[in-house]
Amino acid sequence: MLRPCDRCDNQATVHLTEIDKGGGKTERHLCENCARSLHVPQAASKELQKLLKTFEPVHALTSTLTGLSRSCPECGMTFSEFRQHGRFGCAKDYEVFGQEVSRLLRRIHGADTYTGKAPRGGEVREGELIDELTHVREALDAAIHDENYEEAARLRDEIRRIGAGAGSHESPGGGQAPDGAGDGASDGDGES
Amino acid sequence: MSDERDPPLPGLWLAEEGPEQDVVVSSRMRLARNVDGYHFRSRFRDGEGERLEQYLHGVLTEVDPSFTYLSLADTPQTLCEVLFERHIVSQEHVTAQHPRGVAYTNDGTTSVMVNEEDHLRIQVFGPGLDLETLVANVDDLDDRIGERVDYSFTPRHGYLTSCPTNTGTGLRVSVMLHLPALSYRPDNSRPGTQGIVKVHNAAQKLGLAVRGMHGESSRAEGDFYQISNQVTLGRPSSQAIGDLLDALPQVLLYEREIRAALLKDDRTRIEDTVWRAWAVLTNARQITSAEALSLLSSLRLGVCVEMIDGVGLGTIHRLMIAMRPGHLQRRAGSELKPEDRDIVRATLIRDTLLGTDGN
Ligand SMILES: [Zn+2]
Ligand SMILES: [Zn+2]
Fold first, then answer.
1. ipTM topping 0.90
2. How do the pLDDT tens digits run along chain B, 359 residues long?
3. Interface contact B290-A10, CB threshold 8 A
4. How far is B221 from chain A (nearest CA, A)?
5. CA Rg value for chain A
6. Cis (ω within 30 of 0) for the bond into B99?
7. Domain match, B36 and B75 both
8. Which of B213, B237, B263 is a domain's end point?
9. With a CB-CB cutoff of 8 Å, which residues 128-187 of chain A face chain B?
10. By three-state DSSP, how is residue B70 classified?
């Protein structure tokens, strides 16, 4: 079917029929670029999608200690849903899926801790959090090893207080170089 | 043609002059921000999107009373298309169905999308290469919004975003480059030997991405490429901008050197390409946007190397936007079939280049 894209003048290669609640049909013809930026049919970019596939949820003891189930109490997101679409449901997901998120962020950015400006004139300096977190994490590891779950729960809260997400027990910043998981296409045309 | 109640169109800053414009077409910076206490867009509850849009509309009006704010649900499709073609909103923002909006300044250099992939997408643009000005502007706007809104932020991960590729600074800085010489491949040469391949490879090592104007990764339409940062965590945004600024002089130098070399070694062929582009653009009676973009690219090269005078880069940039479907349809005052757009486009280009167009 040779016809131009509904949204630009490229040749349409994606043809969709949408059926609304009343049974009415709308046909859409899009080129690959437009289809991608319209999130048809899948939200995550190819690179991100590939990355997410390699992420099996970690059933870490620390995640279940405080009774957190593996879905977000705030928005109901599960990690497998996140993996499918590559988009979080709310800010709390960063905390709920702390370990997976940290690993993922390291794969994407080569780091999982923030440096830079903070709201209302604040600033987070390099290494500021890492020292404190490393210390508490070591204590948490020890508590788990000693099966001192009460202390472990307290330390986990402490970690959450310092920064969202329990992070992981691997050394921070030890990730891979970024392998180009971009979302350029989701910014529409042009200058993503 | 336009109704009195029509909101002011954002200005065409792309037609203005900017630094390094022989190679750098434009620069853009955007910040992704979310508001604490609201779900991200994919998980909005009933009415949450409306409430958040209303709230942010109020905030943005307070931050800058000169903003034009549009709720996209109440905005005619053609106007949305025009805003998209002027980079004020993303393509996805136009077609989405949920409550969403956009605020922009009349000069078109600043826009804030509400309820896009993130609650706020703050964007600033400028012609040519001027990242220092852009970063100052985008930071200032971010601060003024951040005084009134509680952003989703943790010291550990920075600004929390809907997509993990933006987590941290939420910053995407990109420059649009015109690289006809780097893309040039003489007949009979091996594929992959053009300069642009080397640019791709060098950029990748720096954590930068090179894409075509419409996201393509091989040779780009019209030889327009965008280079942007990928990393938003672990280093401050100043470093991402610094990396880009470090990499660019090489690319600019390389492109200019090859342009000079081509003019020396292959002048007739370059002249032929440029003048053929002029001939078609000023005579065609119907033209697709792909063909027009490719010819305008050749014409742009001709202007940059002073082969063509009487046409400015501003005119070419204005055409690159004005020839797109939304603008053509707004100009015509009605919806146009693609075949008809090709005719209207050819007329617009002829009239503009031959100086008979009032715009
Ligand atoms: Zn298209
Ligand atoms: Zn959630």
1. no
2. 444 467 889 999 999 999 999 999 999 999 999 999 999 999 999 999 999 999 999 999 999 999 999 999 999 999 999 999 999 999 889 989 899 999 999 999 999 999 999 999 999 999 999 999 999 999 999 999 999 999 999 999 999 999 999 999 999 999 999 999 888 766 656 655 567 777 777 777 777 888 776 655 555 778 899 888 888 888 888 888 888 888 889 889 989 998 999 899 889 989 999 999 999 999 999 999 999 999 999 999 999 999 998 899 999 999 999 999 999 999 999 999 999 999 999 999 999 999 865 44
3. yes
4. 11
5. 21
6. no
7. yes
8. B263
9. 128-129, 133, 162-165, 167, 173, 177-178, 180-187
10. strand
Same domain? B163 vs B216: no
SS3 at position B343: helix
For residue A106, report the distance from its CA to the centre of ligand 2, in Å: 21
End-to-end CA distance of chain B: 14
Q: How far is A145 from chain B (nearest CA, A)?
A: 25
Q: Which ligand is nearest to the CA of A90?
A: 2
What does B17-30 look like in DSSP terms, one character per residue? --TTTTTEEEEEEE
Neighbouring residues of A168: CB distance < 8 A, sequence distance ≥ 6: A58, A98, A99, A102, A103
Do B221 and B320 have their domain in common?
Answer: no
Last residue of a domain, one of B221, B237, B263: B263
CB contact under 8 A, A191 and B26: yes
